[in-house]
């Protein structure tokens, strides 16, 4: 990667989005943004060169804000994707020697939900408090200096705020991954790295309201060409009840002529189709 490039990401610092950003852009200058919209707008206006935002979590599902902004409000192609395993840890103040004395645990609501079994079994009497992010929870524990408070967060937050990882990998399930998208002003895909897994294409499909069976026709255009759909999701058009568009992720084949044929067939049916990105997918293998 070009170390002179500027990378924006959904902040604050010390979150999994920053870990994803550091994984793909190790040496580049990184800037956190308070919201997904602010991050993507910074890419659009040239304040940063790339933006990294979350798209989907195994447990919590899709990040609708990202989907809606990309498909309806900003014109930024997807140029890369990273799948990152989510590993939650119990973080305590470095002066606390016994984590079982903790009486209050803070974190983002999603992180607390992902560690429900551990909390019920090991800290059943602890008060659970929501924070704006896992990083904000870690910062609070560090600043307050209350030894009976702990945070749930990642190793980057522990390092940034000088906390001790008292218990590692306290999440309920190992199958907890988050997909992060990389956006750029031009459709030039990121270069492949050792983390490369496969190439993908993401389409936006708008179905005519007066076309019964239109979605079946769309899926058939992919199916008879043996193209593998990795995801299909509907989102409201926000133009009236019952009006939806679809986001479809497809494994990109070696022969682009197949994708060209899909576009031509669907367009010939009077169905709206556009490409949101053709990009490499990178995967970080989970490690305990």
What does it look like?
It is a single chain. The chain is α/β, with parallel strands linked by helices. It has three domains: 90 residues, Periplasmic binding protein-like II (D-Maltodextrin-Binding Protein, domain 2), CATH 3.40.190; 79 residues, D-Maltodextrin-Binding Protein, domain 2 (3-Layer(aba) Sandwich), CATH 3.40.190; 82 residues, 2-Layer Sandwich (Alpha-Beta Plaits), CATH 3.30.70.260. Helix content is 28%, strand content 33%. Strands 1, 2, 3, 4, 5, 11, 12, 13, 14 and 15 form a ten-stranded mixed β-sheet that branches. α8 runs antiparallel to α9. The longest helix is centred in the last third of the chain and has 13 residues. The radius of gyration is 21 Å and the shape is elongated. The model has no long low-confidence stretch (mean pLDDT 88). It is an enzyme of class 4 (lyase). It catalyses: prephenate + H(+) = 3-phenylpyruvate + CO2 + H2O. One of its GO terms (cellular component) is cytoplasm. Pathway: Amino-acid biosynthesis; L-phenylalanine biosynthesis; phenylpyruvate from prephenate: step 1/1. Pfam families: ACT (PF01842), PDT (PF00800).
